[in-house]
Amino acid sequence: MELDLLCPHCQHRNECQLHFPLENPVLCEACEKPLFDHGSEGFRIEGQLDQCPLCGAEHLYRQRDFNRALGIGLVVVGALLAPFSYGISLILLALLDWLIYRSVDEVACCYQCGTLFRAFPTIAKVEPFNLQIYDYYRNLKSN
Ligand SMILES: [Zn+2]
Ligand SMILES: [Zn+2]
Fold it and tell me: Is residue 96 a contact partner of residue 84, using CB atoms and an 8 Å limit?
């Protein structure tokens, strides 16, 4: 199971692989403070996503792993558009986009801190993206 997160203490970006149950506290690789101050017991034991282990928000959403898809997509787009940019390449791009979209796994993401959870067995239980909840957290941040 894999996490892509910003440390809540120093904002350093960490990508960590976790194996449950967690025996030792997971520390930020930059400031060495514990990352999962809000990890519930269920999270520590088997990686349950009942709340965000980093910021304690109770809401997470599920989506395709767009960041990864975009990364792959852009490389391909760059290569394709270099020599020609006629209509045909656009159709190919759309097809390619669709293929990439289909091949990308789902991830869970925290509304509040944006942490990404990859390859957790519990992702299927997380609710799909909800704009109202997203707006709620965005308003919290701007206040
Ligand atoms: Zn840190
Ligand atoms: Zn969070």
Answer: no
Ligand with the closest atom to the CA of 116 = 2
Q: Which ligand is nearest to the CA of 8?
A: 1
Cα 143 to averaged position of ligand 1 atoms, centre (Å): 25
State the ligand closest to the CA atom of 12.
Answer: 1
Same domain, 10 and 57: yes
State the distance from the centre of ligand 1 to the C-alpha of 5, rounded, in angstroms.
10
Q: Which residues of the chain have pLDDT under 50?
A: none
Ligand sitting nearest the alpha carbon of 3: 2
Burial of 107 (0-12, 13-18, 19+ CB in 10 A): buried
Quick one: pLDDT at residue 75? 64
> Ligand 1 centre and the CA of 113: distance in Å?
14
Segments forming the whole domain that contains residue 95: 66-104
CA distance 63 to 126: 9
- Rounded CA gap, 121 and 10, in Å? 29
Same domain for 51 and 113: yes
Residue type for position 111: Y
Count how many domains the chain has: 2
